Amino acid sequence: MVNQRSPVNGETYQERLTRLEGDKESLVLQVSVLTDQVEAQGVKISDLESSLEEHQHKLDSTEEMLRQELLSRTSLESQKLDLMGEVSYLKLKLVDMEEKQIHGVERKHKAESVVNLISELQEQMCRFQQEINCRIWEKTGQADSSPQEACDTGSTEAQNPDQGLACEGSPEEVILQELRLFKEKVDHLEDQKSQYERRLKATKVKHVSLPPLLLCLDCTSSAQIPLLTTAFLNHVQSAFLPRGLQGEDLEPNQFRRGGLRATAGPRLTRTPESGSSVRDMNTPFSQWTREQVCGWLEDYGLGQYVNLTRQWVDNGQTLLSARPQDFEKEMGIKHPLHRKKLQLALRGFSTKALEKSSELDHIWVTRWLDDIGLPQYKDHFHEGRVDGRMLQYLTVNDLLFLKVTSQLHHLSIKCAIHVLHVNKFNPHCLRRRPGEERNPSPSEVIQWSNHRVMEWLRAVDLAEYAPNLRGSGVHGGLIILEPRFSSETLAMLLNIPPQKTLLRRHLATAFTSLVGTQATLEKREYANATGHAPLTTTAKVRPKKLGFTHFSHLRKRSPDNLADYICPIDSGGLSAMNGVSHRPYTGVRGLSPILDREPERQEQVGFQVTLRTTW
Fold this sequence. Notes:
Blueprint: H1 13-143, H2 147-158, H3 171-208, H4 210-215, H5 230-240, H6 272-278, H7 290-299, H8 306-312, H9 316-320, H10 324-330, H11 336-351, H12 362-371, H13 378-383, H14 388-392, H15 396-401, H16 407-422, H17 442-445, H18 450-459, H19 476-481, H20 487-493, H21 501-515, H22 517-528, H23 560-563, E1 576-577, E2 580-581, H24 601-614
Antiparallel strand pairs: 1-2
Helix pairs in contact: 1-3, 1-12, 3-5, 6-7, 7-8
């Protein structure tokens, strides 16, 4: 047998076949091991994919919960703002109700004093009746004597010239006539006493019902307590004093029982009919009585000056013809805004011009401050009794007196007053809630309140910065009407850091789409003008100080510049500087105030000079 060898490496074919079979077995083993490893990795991959799907599902559910939480947080913040505004309004109403309760307690004490006076008068009536009986017996005894002696005795006791006529008749007729007069007076007094007792019972019932009314803050007025008038007390006095004891009439300046004491409250002699007469606008103010004028002062929010007013005023003409310094001297009005409020009201009575702003009282103005984002000044405005009519004539010095020193807040109030002018002082012109509009126009944005602007910030994904606008004075009127208010100003108010450029760019884009293209171009043109001073959040307004060199220019200044109103009624005369119009209202066409007051311009100028010298 011949062994065949490989010509290459000298091994036989049998050895080579054996080696290849061994290699094949090792490769098959490796393939099986790798197959097992691939199967194990496939199981792991499927487990990881299922775990990934589970985590993705959890992530989606978490994002949905976060979205719902943000929506609920937004609604809760809106409800919180509403409740804060309602609480502030209820606090003001509570203060008014407490003042009314104090007046009610004072009236109760006065009523009790009058009851004591009635009891004293009843005792005096008993003494007079005893005296009448004694005089009847005396007259009867004197009737037996001569007629001439009876006449002389009667004239001596009565000390009245009218009794001299008794000489012409018999003594019995004189006595009967005098007794009839006494009887009529006593009967009339009894009727007046019964009427007053009924009034007193009604007063006690209404006073008992005052605490529940105070708890119910929605009530707008407390019960009116009828009180005894001065005329009635004088009538009681004249009825109780017999003619025989009225030898001489009392002087008008002497003390009379039943008159007003020095400690009498402002509403002691206010009768129910005086309040209804004040509402009758057909009667000229100059013909109003003293009580009507005092009642009107109380309704107008100046009730603390009623006491001195009653001692000075005879009728409405007294106030109309008074000089400005008389209000401080005679009525004790030292608060400059109170004097201004009174002068504006009297001017309205004189000109008989009905202004819509006069329908807005000082309580409404405090709610209006909430709407424009300046609730921190509500106490000062309420103390100054600033109402809708005074908003038209607010000056820079008035705002400084009300502790408003921020330049941004001055501009906020100015633009808000202008919005009131445009809407003819409609109390419901500001929008507090989002409407159905998707792309609001500038004419709609101008009516946005501070809360509505915060809602817009939440809508453009800036919800975490929205609470920073509270107390900032930012509202739709300021955004649209003020040319210096830009997206940079809003970013500063929102406290967005300068390094967050993407966030500021997003705010600028949203701001541009909100105010419109035309207003954006005008704001940019105003900002690029030479000498432009950017609007900052820390700038303060300081009162102007006049030196000796400035007094010579006062005569050269026009009367229009003397009043320096925050929002002038005639805004058409604003000048331009550096080629850029300073009218902030040109960015929105058709929003300038339509106030045809040129016929009254001459009269207003004279009134401005008067107010300026007084305030």
